[in-house]
């Protein structure tokens, strides 16, 4: 097995570097794949384990600068100053990356949505928390439309200024479970919060960030392996 750094390893979504082969590509990927609670998973309100006040998440997002980057099979918004964060179990997890997968990685009762954004957070100990937001693409006017959006774009410098709350639904009901990263090295544990609503995203906005990307970049659904899934209204 190759002993090389993660950034040097070629991986993708089909063929010999596809998801079923990730664990064979290097020792780091192999170690990550051994974590028993992998992501994504199928989510259903019929198989949840209730809710708990201790599972609440508080969003402390603000308008800040993001830099556009294209790497590792998707498009990323990366905040250079990590000013936005969430609070979970009295600890701050800072927003470090926003990216998307098509179609969605998580499924609701076995059904994919066309698009899923991941808002990736990390605390000072290096632990991850990811917020998943599912979308459908539409030409109907919505908060991503040019007439409504508060996003400020600079196509020459690849810099944007926006409040990441634009990706969050008004109704904050969500699933919460313990899983992993969905891209190599697929390490865990990762606290996942996936909103149960499928929101609308403007076709023009999506095409702007989707241009040149893979036609699909979603990891298949993984087995629950007995883990608990919580749902909070």
From TrEMBL:
UniProt keyword terms in alphabetical order: Lyase, Metal-binding, Zinc
Reaction catalysis annotation: hydrogencarbonate + H(+) = CO2 + H2O
InterPro entries, sorted: Alpha_CA_prokaryot-like, CA_dom, CA_dom_sf, Carbonic_anhydrase_a-class
Domain Alpha-carbonic anhydrase: 9-233
Molecular function via GO: carbonate dehydratase activity; zinc ion binding
EC number: 4.2.1.1
SUPFAM superfamilies per UniProt: Carbonic anhydrase
Name of one Pfam family that matches: Carb_anhydrase
UniProt family annotation: Belongs to the alpha-carbonic anhydrase family.
Name of the molecule in the record: carbonic anhydrase
Lineage start: Bacteria, Bacillati, Bacillota, Bacilli, Lactobacillales
